[in-house]
Amino acid sequence: ANRTAMDPLLSPFSTLPQQNQLPSLAVLLLGPATCHKNDIADQLVACSGHRSIAVRLATQLPLKPDPARPAIDFVVCLVDLKDATSLTLAESNIHRLSHMYSPGRCCVLVPQADVQQQQQQA
User: Fold this and answer.
1) Tell me: the pLDDT tens digits for 59-105?
2) Which of 5, 18, 26, 49 lies in disulfide reach of 70, CB 3.0 to 4.6 Å?
3) How many CB atoms are closer than 10 A to CB 27?
């Protein structure tokens, strides 16, 4: 997919942190509504322990400008195996990420993949 000037990359440094107002970690969950983003966000916050974590949800990039949004530290691209457009959406989102997310700041998650595999084997 070709990018244009109107199609900006998401970069970890697109918003500079402000010391007193930011959580220690900001995670962006990207993907279709069928991927249970809210459940995953709740689990991330619940298991964060003493570390402060903020989870943002979005379907696709680019994100709308928001001066209150903290810099995104980690991006999770969600793929729903039951949704034919989900993989295309994930690919599009990955293309809109800055190369700064490549080494250890981004992952692809397939929720309930084991459930689908068990159903296919039955």
Assistant:
1) 999 999 888 888 899 999 999 988 889 999 999 999 999 998 887 89
2) 26
3) 20
